[in-house]
# Entry
Amino acid sequence: MVLNQASLKRDGVQDYVSLRATAIILVLYTLFILGYFICTPEVTFDSWKGLFSNVLVKAFTLLALVCIAVHTKIGLWQVLTDYVKSARLRAVLQFLLYTLAFGYVAVGIFVLWGV
# Structure
C-alpha cells in the first residue's frame, strides 16, 4: 500500500494527534497563568505588563492562541459534520466560525506584538 504523505487531506489520526497536542499546550499555558496569579500577591497593570514584556511569554501566548484556533477548527468540524445535516448551512457556519477563530489569532498578534 502506498501512502501519499504530501497530500493536504486530513485523516482521523492527524486530527486525533492535533487535538491532543493542542490540548496539552493549552493546559500548560493555563497552568502557567494560574501559577502566575497564585505566586503574585497583587496583580496590577504594571505587573501584568511586566509579565507580557518578556518575549518568551509573548511567544507562549501566541502559541496558545494558534493552538486554540487549531483545536477550534477540528472540534467545530467534528461537531458540525455530526449535527448539521445541510451542507450549505454547515459551510456557512464553518466559514463564519473559522473566520472568527482566525480573527482571534490576528487580534492576539496585534495586541501581543504591537504590530
Q: What stands out?
A: The chain has one domain: 12-113. The domain at 12-113 is CATH 1.20.1300.10 (3 helical TM bundles of succinate and fumarate reductases).
